[in-house]
């Protein structure tokens, strides 16, 4: 296709129309403290925050979100359209980070591309078998490079909260707060 040919102009017009729709999404994201929906999964994080009814905790350090009861949460997501088999955790997981992980509930969002397939929540006590394996490894090394939480483990042990069940709603807060 030639530059500014009829086909090229058609593509530009389609892009501009779709991009205008993204502006509304971007404006909504700023209400959640997300400045760029294309950076660090910003749009997906906003989507998760809304479905879970959480508020964003800004910054790259610490927990990711806070619920209506003031409980902080660790949030993880995965794109099954890639080769990933587990949820990434921390590139330098050590005893300090593991101790932090044991104190908060977790949410896990499973995507295929940009489509949210399902979401699960889990109190840290359910993750304890995984944490114990990591702790054993940390006895012989200073840190573990990005250990994974398997999708299969999450689906088998977590409580599914999405797709939303409008007939029998389950707040993530009530599911996990009993275990904290």
Shape: globular
**Spatial extent as radius of gyration:** 19 Å
Distance between the termini: 60 Å
Neighbour order of strands in the largest sheet: 1-2-3-5-6-8
Q: Helix- and strand-based class?
A: alpha+beta
The CATH C-level name of the domain at 55-177 is Alpha Beta
CATH topology term of the domain at 55-177: PvuII Endonuclease, Chain A
- Number of extended strands: 8
Average pLDDT across residues?
92
The named CATH superfamily of the domain at 55-177: PVUII Endonuclease, subunit A
The protein's oligomeric status is: single chain
Q: What is the H/E order?
A: HHEEEEHEEHEHEH
Instruction: Give helix % range.
Output: 25-40%
What portion of residues belong to β-strands? 15-25%
The CATH architecture of the domain at 55-177 can be named as 3-Layer(aba) Sandwich
Number of helices: 6
pLDDT below 50 for ≥5 consecutive residues: which ranges?
A: none
Largest sheet: 6 strands, mixed
Question: What does this protein look like?
Answer:
The chain has 180 residues and is α+β, with helices and mostly antiparallel strands. 37% of the residues lie in helices and 19% in strands. The chain has helices at 6-30, 42-52, 95-101, 128-138, 151-157, 172-177; strands at residues 55-56, 65-66, 72-79, 86-87, 106-112, 115-122, 149-150, 159-162. The N and C termini lie far apart (60 Å).
